[in-house]
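Usage

Read records sequentially. Each one opens with the input sequence:
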Amino acid sequence: PRDIIMCNWEYSLNMEKSSTHFGQRRYSYRLPQYEKLGFKYLVCPALFDSRNIQSFTAYGNRFNPTGFLMTSWEKSKLYIYKDLLNVAFGGELWRAEKTACASQTMDNIIQDFFQIKEKAFINAVKTFLAFNRCTDRPDVAQHLRGSITPYEIERANNAELMLSILSGYAEKIYGGIQKKVYDDIIIGIKR
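and closes with the structure output:
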């Protein structure tokens, strides 16, 4: 049947070389396949990673998707406030001219949302939004399984740096949804 809409979830950082879920062993180019087969489809980037949103949007715009869709999985276990800025980012990219600068778009979203113009704050939030699944610090279990990898050390260092920058802005964030998003980002860094 052709009266269905395919949803293509891809969480790769570089959609030009998107690999399959099973072992990341081969590249898969689904959008041209869907078009060749006559399916309508949606581009569905990862809510938790602004790099994927940017890459998948640029890749999707090379084709003719019916639209874009962001989904939120397992939010009964995780917080969602920190992801609201990525939702806004996706929405802005999807309605913007295809030549819009993604980095400047994200800067504007963060600045407008928090009403803070300092570049250090904007860059720390932007870094978190690009790596918010990668801020886990090494814990006892990691020590017990063996040496901590350089990647884990880098993630921990990034988390410390983001936390040291963002903590200095606690008094500049006033109530409402901005405070909830800010608090959720801090919790996300500390986890």
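Summary fields computed downstream for this record:
- The beta strands are 5-9, 40-44, 67-68.
- The CA atoms of residues 47 and 72 lie 7 Å apart.
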